[in-house]
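User: Hello! My lab partner asked me to get a predicted holo structure for this protein. The small molecule is zinc ion, SMILES included with the sequence. Please write out the structure tokens.
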Amino acid sequence: MPPRSTTKVIKPAPRPEKDSLIIEHICLLKILRGKDAGTILELGEETVAAGRSEYCDLFIDDPSASRQHFEVGGQYGMHVLTDLDSTNGTMVNGVRVAECRLSNGDIVTVGATEIGFFEQKKVRAPRAKTPPRPPGGIH
Amino acid sequence: MRVKFWGTRGSIPTPGRTTEKYGGNTSCVEVTHGGRRVILDGGTGIRELGIRMAGEEPSEVVILFSHCHWDHIQGLPFFVPFFKKGFRFRIAAPPHLSRRIKAILGKQMASEVFPVDFADLGSDISFKEMPASGVKVGPFRIRHFALNHPGGSAGYRIEAGGTSLVYATDHEFAPQDDPRTFDAFVRHLKGAHLYIADGQYVEKEYAERHGWGHSTVEHVVAAAKAARVLRLAVTHHDPMHDDPALTGFEHDAMKQHPGLEIFFAREGIAVEVRDTLRP
Ligand SMILES: [Zn+2]
Ligand SMILES: [Zn+2]
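Assistant: Hello! Below are the structure tokens for the protein in complex with zinc ion.
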């Protein structure tokens, strides 16, 4: 008779129901080098501007930056960077661009300031559902 | 001049998550200057350009084809401005191509394979043979030259606003032992501010791809250096090269050739052609 297995079966702890969690893709710009390093701007649907003007969504405190330096907007489900005719140019991964669809890990350089574009997954619980309405109409 | 890449893939479209950084659409490049536009090739990338153009006032546009392999014409049946009244397209091509191009584009829209006949398109499309001396269209001075590719391919040198670019795909630097072909190519490339090149392969793959009509990154870097071009944009990416592979090749090329400004073209990237290096 074969020896009895001593393997223990460990049952997983009960997990929250699968569909009760939502995976969101978050895109963000993060200042990696320069003044205000560590600053993060989460990107949504709206177009955001970056530059040396305090009215910009992402303030770049760098003498080489133009007041309105570049903007990032959504297009076809991607984030597109457009240089706003800045004096000193916008570089993406070392290439001076007029326009560029951003991809995870891209480094945007403005003067001595480096800004990373990152795509992250965020898991969150769903927002409270609206309770089902009582059936109306025909009774 | 502003150059925008709408399609950067060679051979066949490669949609999907592993190619979204450099793009999956086939060859199409847009050149604009002073409100005028030249389109280089009509691979599947031209579809999105067409969507953009359809929202603008109709205009007169020049289209240049390198050659008529699928990856350079396949987007045309889905190019919305072709269907719209008011748009005028001037298709200029070197003699050997000019004589065949209309028939080839027509065949691509034959009733067996496409519901709309080329002759029924709403825009005004005309074909013109481009003489060896080139043509002047609006602000653009355009010249063509022959490339080495199965069935032939044409390269174009475009000058406007004091800057110049060369679009040269699909091309193989062969025969390797004949310096004349290399030198002839370099003459057309001389001093270009932007060289848009076919860098489909890297050196280690090339041994098994002789005669396929494409270059390696190493070949085009050598030509760029010999011709003293300012910036090199590598395109016509191999369908077997995913984003991590291309990112690696791009980093290697940038690292190995610091004196040359190199980038691998990505779908949607636009650059200004400048006569000086970095800001
Ligand atoms: Zn091709
Ligand atoms: Zn070809």
